[in-house]
Amino acid sequence: MTQTPPLQSDATSRGGSNPQATGETQPADERAPVRVALLGLGTVGGGLAEILAELRAEITERAEGPVDIVGVAVRDLTRQRDVPVDPTLLTTDAAGLVTRDDVDVVVEVMGGLEPAQTLAASALRAGKAVVTANKAIVARYGGALAAAAAAGRGALYYEAAAAGAIPVVKVVGESLSGNRVDSLMGIVNGTCNFILTQMSASGASFADALAEAQALGYAEADPTSDVGGEDAAYKLILLARLAFDTDVQLADVSCEGIDTVSAADIARARDLGYAVKLLAVAQRRPEGLEARVHPTLVPLAHPLASVQGAFNAVFIEADRSGPLMLYGQGAGRRPTASAVAADLVDAALQLRRGRRDGIAAPGAPRPVPALRRGPAVLPTAEGLSRYYVSLRVADEPGVLAAVASAFASEGVSIASCLQEGRGVDPVDLIFVTHTVRDGDLRAALATIAALPTVRSVASVMRVLA
Ligand SMILES: NC(=O)c1ccc[n+]([C@@H]2O[C@H](COP(=O)([O-])OP(=O)(O)OC[C@H]3O[C@@H](n4cnc5c(N)ncnc54)[C@H](OP(=O)(O)O)[C@@H]3O)[C@@H](O)[C@H]2O)c1
Fold first, then answer.
1. Which residue of 222, 284, 399, 403 has the lowest C-beta tally within 10 Å?
2. Is this prediction's pTM over 0.85?
3. Structural domains in the chain?
């Protein structure tokens, strides 16, 4: 295997002031390359290899020098791969690759928790920059990765992990630094948004819309993490940590998926003036931070209501900037690889500039907060929201009064109520509440579910005010 020369020798990097020695006067394409170990050559890794080949001149210019892949870890060396990568660079020894002396940056696009987390931590401890698209390891092991980066003076970049091509990590972590963020709401799972859009457009059931999403490649064979809300919770954790300087953990996020949403709920919501969206919400309140993922009735006039199909969007309200919304493709080979490539260029620039200035390692650009400094995350029961509640009840006199009394006993105030179906049993009773404490609503629903005339609590969703 050919080994590219080091970016700079230690002696020249410590000097810092000799432009000849540091290569500043050389044309970018003649400078020593930043050397990249790629962990994974699938959808995203293959897309990155294409970018580095197809945009070589532009990337070299933007990164102030070449960015070269010097090794690629895969599982299966025999697999046919239609990617512009020298096959002799492939290895199954990912652990050996990440600590090689001739590697400056490790790009982790293999996915999963292990060995991805251990490899990323080991590269950070070895002083490498790590670029990852893996929301699961950043969300679950952010503290450990930050500690590894601090110990080894490595740097962690994870733009692609939060919302694919949408540069939201940069915006929340850097561009909004002059603000206090009040709330952040995202449609950050394209699979769920595609399913909900199809259910709304055609009246399809959840199962049929999911099957269509799978046939079109928008949903995994096992869609649990997407439709159950876990994927959106991971992304919320990444963004909430940056926006609120606090260490949100998965257990802190109240998480509901879309698998219980029916086409009837969506049609009813539309009649009431709402679109149903899976929202990841982090909201600052005087008492602490709310962090939750759930299907939500979004007013049709709200910008998030118009986000259709597999697209993503993040809506942020900050005290000085006011509201802003970022919109784009949250997944897919080319969009995701483009965000990884942007982080790679940032990492290469940091390395080159850091070494030119005599700094041995770049330092984390957007640290994952390891300590809880900002507001504590509130328990789910303390959350405040308006709610949509759909009940199946016996078509009998007195039912409405009994339900209203159960709501009232917990202080749940009703904004509107409608009954669907007459002369059939059961009928649907639909309520929209005023803003209420989650714990109070759940207590009222427990009483209501036990009423002899109530067949079932068919659906409960939050309503965006
Ligand atoms: N796909 C997207 O649209 C998207 C969007 C945002 C974020 N992401 C994230 O990007 C990451 C990669 O996703 P992907 O869709 O590119 O995955 P993928 O297509 O399944 O590719 C995974 C690659 O990693 C390699 N790999 C897996 N386990 C390995 C191991 N233990 N040792 C060595 N190599 C291993 C595989 O090798 P073989 O080829 O030999 O099997 C394959 O090349 C994930 O964290 C994902 O969440 C993906």
1. 222
2. yes
3. 10-164+333-356 (3.40.50.720), 173-329 (3.30.360.10), 380-463 (3.30.70.260)
